Amino acid sequence: MPIKVLLVDDEPLVRAGLRAVLEAQPDIEVVGEAADGAAVVPLVRSLRPDVVAMDVRMPLLDGIEATRAVLRSVDAPPKIVVVTTFENDEYVYDALRAGADGFLLKRARPAEIVHAIRLVAEGETLLFPAAVRALAAEYGSAPARAALERAALTDREADVLRLMARGMSNAEIAAELIVGAETVKSHVSAVLAKLGARDRTQAVIAAYESGFVSPG
Amino acid sequence: MPIKVLLVDDEPLVRAGLRAVLEAQPDIEVVGEAADGAAVVPLVRSLRPDVVAMDVRMPLLDGIEATRAVLRSVDAPPKIVVVTTFENDEYVYDALRAGADGFLLKRARPAEIVHAIRLVAEGETLLFPAAVRALAAEYGSAPARAALERAALTDREADVLRLMARGMSNAEIAAELIVGAETVKSHVSAVLAKLGARDRTQAVIAAYESGFVSPG
DNA sequence: GATCTTCTCCCCCGCGCGGGGGAACCGGCT
DNA sequence: AGCCGGTTCCCCCGCGCGGGGGAGAAGATC
């Protein structure tokens, strides 16, 4: 009997890609899709998947909350694999703490994705792929890193800085985080103040220099 | 005279979407469509498009080979923009090496797609659009550096980008280089155009991701 | 000579950014 | 109950930024 998988991602293209990759395997069957976390629990109840491939960042209910909701409210819950774009995404670890069984990168090769699904279906836990260790190893210089740690950014400020470091405007960050533009401005101002940066460009430079974000 | 665009994608839905987006612009005209790479060269010869929006993955002849074929066999070849679904598409960089002038993601917003077409039509190389990070992540900094070299910054523009990456304002850069503020603005604008960056922050990000500057 | 690129500087203009305030809500802590 | 930090949103305001033009001088190239 095949491994039944439920896909949860707000981007149709990502779902289509995962479906194509997984359904090419004879032992894997995609039994359903959801575009946001709020739809996950009912779908898990009705479809009884073995594995849920869950995006972290989604509108309405993110992957972390959705993971908690599934584990809390479903008997014999499925294995949950967190799907993420960036390996240094802090949310990934939150999701793992919330009870997820592993994670995989969207840029992973199809064979790796298939492998990950099979592993967690068998009860294994995928915690720290080589990519994450390698990234942690080449983390930034100690002084700069310490400086940024001293800055003591809040969770939300860290989110904003991460998106700033991806070149997003305030409006784009607001759309990404599903908050108002004024809210983003508040967070940006707080980040600039804490980092001692004059503008967003200096803040992004500090993020790179400290290893808060890393090239590649 | 409008920018003449040829669409090449095996998915009719994608072609329809691109056509709808591009033809909403008064200065852009979609002159033709092709469903696979094999049909591209004859169509380029007969239609003489300014820009070819080329999917990477296609039946018969993929976007990489089709790009090579066009550049090899057509005089005064059109600009070629690689269209891809996933930012980590391993073939994207191969296409850039084959001579493509830029790339864009299918999930990009209409305004970004239009912007990309206009930029490459003007002879710029489009590097930034969100995919640079993923490319650099998977293949290391060498490809991104090569891509930045393709941008062909002049000596002065490289000077300005280096100082931008140190967090300097236009006025500070002007003082550092002992030139007028207006001169710096000109160089900055040139850098942004060549990198396909929207603002100085994105330019600095591209500088880090490409290894043009390094943390530490 | 003519042409091209590069570097230099200038104009106007719109807008996003960042500073400076304030305020409401909520959860945690005392 | 009271306090406080975090998140959310609002106001006004000045200014640097970036786009779109143009233009002159120097050097390379043909």
TrEMBL record, chains A, B:
Residues 4-121 form the Response regulatory domain. GO terms for molecular function: DNA binding. One of its GO terms (biological process) is regulation of DNA-templated transcription. Residues 146-211 form the HTH luxR-type domain. InterPro entries: CheY-like_superfamily, NreC/VraR/RcsB-like_REC, Sig_transdc_resp-reg_C-effctor, Sig_transdc_resp-reg_receiver, Tscrpt_reg_LuxR_C, WalR-like. It comes from the Bacteria. Signal peptide: none annotated. This is DNA-binding response regulator, NarL/FixJ family, contains REC and HTH domains. The modification 4-aspartylphosphate is found at D55. CDD domains: LuxR_C_like (cd06170), REC_NarL-like (cd17535). Keywords: DNA-binding, Phosphoprotein, Transcription, Transcription regulation.
